[in-house]
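Batch job 17 of 40 flagged for manual review because the log was empty.
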Amino acid sequence: MQNLTYKNGSFETLGRTLVIGGDGVLGTALRSLSFKLDLDFVFTSRSLKMSSPGIFLDLNQIPDKTFFAEFSTIIYLAQSREYRSYPEGLADLVQLNIIAPTELARIAEMIDSKFVFCSTGSVYPLSELPSYEESPIKPQGNLDSYTASKLFGERAIQKVNPNSLILRPFFIFGMSHNNQSLMPSIYKQIVGQQIINLKGVNGLTFNPISSIDAAAALLHLLARKSIGVYNLAGHEITNLRSVANLMSSKLGLEPKYIVSDGEEVLVGGFDKLLESGFQFPKTLDTRLNEYILKLKLSDSGFES
């Protein structure tokens, strides 16, 4: 792991930090990293069976500002579990991706705390060129309900708290419970000897980022007191066929593909992150190999 200290101090200067929604891929990595660095991080849960250390927080009933007064930073990673359910899940989507984070951003501004909102790289359209923070976003008519809610959340948050940090992650991969993102889906298809659909010869061209590096980048940006929008994207570009071939070789299996016409490219511009001074400590291949090993151990009944 890279040396996570800085000229102007270290992560210890972050103070007491509240992480809302720490059960996902990024939250799981952030929990692990904060423990290794001995940071004062508190994680919330919507479940009464919360993991320790943690506190219960119902995002449908936001407490008043006194509840948050002890925290110098509030990181919002919560995601609606109804993002694939439309229109039934629309109310939950709006509450968790727009209303709750906007209210928390407003509270953070009132108590002079830093606010971080995790949005999505899917706000950008598919493009042959990398999508940078200032690049055009998808037209409103092309937005799915999940992406639209994240984008509306971004805009509402920036109005009530201009000093917020907005993160747009691109294909974060890592271990977590109930992970239904791209990488574990491909892994499950290979293990199940299912057919993988590729648009174009090599399928999606993208630059995934490991959850370990994404968590480190988040802490790095906080330590630098960064504000505004930052892409959380990997520093190396790959494609779906290459990733599936790597997974297959590690599993000793033969991947099955169906190739259709077309091309899919969604690459997040990472220049702004690098210009902030963040350095990726390992190559993408190394991170993918580490991830595949954890998936294999997990499938074998070992704790990941």
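Reviewer: the log was empty due to a logging misconfiguration, but the result itself is present. The first strand starts at residue 5 and ends at 6. Unflagging and moving on to job 18.
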